[in-house]
C-alpha cells in the first residue's frame, strides 16, 4: 500500500496540545529517499527543540489554513 497526504508532502510536526509528541509521516517510498534528512531533523527536535531544516512546509496546520 502506498500512502500519501492530500498535497503529497510529508508531515513533520508536534501534535497540537501535546508538545512532547512528534508526528513524522514520510509517506511510503517517497520518504525513503529523504530518510536521512528526516531522521536528522527529528533527532534535532528531540534533543535541541528545533531543527536546522525549515520544517514549516511539513506542518499539520497546512491542511486547515
Can you lay out the helices and strands and say which pair or pack?
Layout: E1 11-15, E2 18-25, H1 28-32, H2 35-48
Antiparallel strand pairs: 1-2
Cofactor: FAD
InterPro entries: FAD/NAD-bd_sf, MTOX
Keywords: FAD, Flavoprotein, Oxidoreductase
Write a short abstract of this structure.
This protein is an alpha+beta fold and 65 residues long.
Helix content: 25-40%
Order of helices and strands: EEHH
Sheet with most strands: strand arrangement: 1-2
The profile of the biggest β sheet is: 2 strands, antiparallel
What Rg is obtained from the alpha carbons, in whole angstroms? 12 Å
Tell me what the structure shows.
With 65 residues, the protein is an alpha+beta fold. It has one domain (11-63). 29% of the residues lie in helices and 20% in strands. It has 2 helices and 2 strands. It has helices at residues 28-32, 35-48; strands spanning 11-15, 18-25. It has a two-stranded antiparallel sheet. A hairpin with a 2-residue loop joins β1 and β2. It is globular. The model has no long low-confidence stretch (mean pLDDT 88).
What are the salient characteristics of this protein?
oxidoreductase, FAD/NAD-bd_sf, 20% strand, two-stranded antiparallel sheet, globular, 65 residues, 2 helices, flavoprotein
Amino acid at each position: 500500500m502506498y500512502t500519501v497526504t492530500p498535497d503529497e508532502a510529508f508531515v513533520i510536526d508536534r501534535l497540537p496540545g501535546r508538545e512532547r509528541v512528534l508526528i513524522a509521516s514520510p509517506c511510503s517510498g517517497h520518504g525513503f529517499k529523504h530518510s536521512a534528512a528526516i531522521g536528522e531533523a527529528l533527532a534535532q527536535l528531540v534533543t535541541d527543540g528545533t531543527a536546522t531544516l525549515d520544517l514549516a512546509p511539513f506542518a499539520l496546520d497546512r491542511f486547515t489554513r
